[in-house]
Structure prediction request, 829 residues.
Amino acid sequence: MEPDKFLTDCPPFDGLEAEQRQWAVSQLQSVYMNEDNCNDILRQMRPALFIVRSGVYDLRGSDGRLIERLESGDLFGFPSLLTGREIVNRLTAIEDGIVYVLPQHAFDRLRNASKQFEQYFIRAHGERLLTEKGGSNDGSSDDWTEQTVGSVVTMAPVSLSSDTSIQDAAKVMSEHGISSVLVVDDGQLVGILTDRDLRNRVIAQGLSYEVTVAAVMTQLPESVEESRSLLDALTTMTANNVHHLPVVNSNNEPVGMVTATDLIRQQRSEPVYLISAIRKAESREQLIQEAQKVPEYLKTFANRVKRTTVVGQLMASLTDGMTRQLIQLYEKDYGVAPAQYSWLAFGSQGREDQTLSSDQDNGLLLANGLSDKQKDWFKGLGEYVCEGLHECGIPLCPGNIMASNPDCRGTTDEWLARFRNWTQSPTPKALMYCQIFFDSRAVVGNNRFYQNYREQVAKLAQNEMFLGNLAILVNRISVPLGLFNRFRTEDTDEGDTIDIKRYGIALINDIARIYALQAGFTMPSTPARLKALESSKLLNRRDNQSLLEAWQFLTQLRLNHQLAVWDTDKPKNALDPDELSTLSRRQLKSAFKIIKEAQQGVGLKFSRQGY
Amino acid sequence: MGKLLGALADWYQRRQQLQKPWTQQRYVALDIETTGLDPKKHQVLAIAWMSIEPPVMHTGSAQYHVFSHGQELELGQSPTIHGLTRQDFLHSSEPRQTYAMLSRALSGAVLVCHHKGMDWRFLKHIEKQFLINFQPLGIFDTLAFEKNSFFKDPDHPPKKGQLTLSACRSRHGLPTYTSHHAFTDTLACAELFLAQAFKNAEPEMKTLELLRKCKNLI
Prediction:
């Protein structure tokens, strides 16, 4: 009987229990929608889920761009249901028809009753937002992607030791009403135990309840560090198809758990679709095919986020995702890693200010004392992944800073020796390397292994002479502001242009790096370094804030420029200031002025010569 | 005399109600399934109705009632009648309660049905049988409306089957509903009504004027 009959074939209602679906029907209204009344209906009946029964409608963004053509069985209105935002999209009716309307309370109840139902909308929401264009940013919420995992973890973790009996573990879980529990020995996360484990590995196997948790838990589960972004948490979850993710601090000590629901609560899950498509790729070919969609996705994403620094993060997250996937594919053919290691991202991927034209900067950190055979495995890995990333659209590094280069595959001792050498005898080449290699991040591998190593590297950097040399290097590059505060452009084939990467963004990165190294910080991203430096005595709060603003402005300017010249031969980092609006020109000048002052500040503070 | 005045007042009030734009009026779509065409001989098997406040149809709260008529009803050899199975009659409603509910629903609303003749005949019979009044403000007959708008030319009268509920619906691009069932037909009729009205009347048009388009003002 209609409309139950219709919903039976209409995803995600098709996955509901018959009783749930009939209940949904009892909550339905339907409307006759035509060109004249469709937008009034949308406004008056929201928040609600709209289900097209018949007719054809075009859903357009506030700028008039077609987002989706809606036909029988298509749904709309859910982004507003999920986020509580106003509906900014407009409808036009191509053909009149009947649309079912499910009110918010019913939608919420179905979401709670059926995980599959909820998942459907989270995915759909992600896809929708990726195709939606900006302008809808009302400032009501900051980009959730920028938030750290730590900021959403509220509950203290429920944990037990690995020698707990299964029965006691089950008691703890039922007392706390939780479906998973962290297994922690000596403050370290060693495993996770879930309802599923109890069902599959204990009850189904007829195991005694006296057996210890260690025997049935999932060992060394995927976890996420609290300082990482929610975007990373999401990547890890989709990658491993889990809904619970232990959160650890930099010492690998568990601090809580983040769930898919926590992320949804942040209400913006847009890149989930893209990331999961990359993670679901089952072959190299498939991965490359998905990766080819990245520029297009990134463009739409860039258009709708308020702070474009997220775009750099997203690009880095996507590159991380591709890297992880390639490593898994390699492991499929050549077996798993024969020793402890970390895949390192350097440069812009490390700093998470990657752009569409950034090239690869990566390497491998290996355990000490490897046999030749083990080294061969990593050689193969480096070559396979770098070549794969290249085919995924991440250009090869002209300076050959890639894990395919034997110099970029080092054991802990080798890397430390290299850093020691660079910091103690800072030749120009060594200093140039430092500007790349100090901005590192582990993409794959044991967090603790990397962090131990990275802290030793940080100690090596706290060397006055070395920092002084870095400060001198920063001051060798002069900001393109001339007499009377006029732009000094370079005469190129493209006209009179300014390279805002070299003379702007890179300089701020360099300046922030020097302060961060001096303070012994290990994080690679410039905004994160500046944030951590807020309490520093060397860099006062106002200068810190100015630098961050200049960096954000330049990143934004570069992104806009890159999107404008994408698919052309024009330079991706250089632009003609005459083509900028008056406001942007003025802002660019003040950004350069800030950089100039910061350069001088670094010179005064770190190098004896002073500049 | 007082009775007459009262009736006059009622008529006047209804008349006033019908001056409102049709989009601000409440409607009740209705379908009755019976064992035959003659209210005196045949029985009501099922009745369904649904409120409409254009452009909204209150689908979820549509009413659907089945009557078992004690032992009197004979389903005969056929396992189903009008899509009803023996199973349906296990949950049958009490007629008086049901009709009282319908009476309240119809009061102040315009009745919408496809081919009002038979439904109205049965309702009139029920009025006498149960001493209940059905007093809608007017009747909108989707069949009559369709005939008036598509088959005006007396030289080209509609052919057989051209005015069935499903034929009218497909003419308006509405989806095909396969089951023949009081509930589905009510829904189908309501949707057809809205399609007809929205395509032929400005939202500000008076209800009276819209009803005139199917020449069935009561």
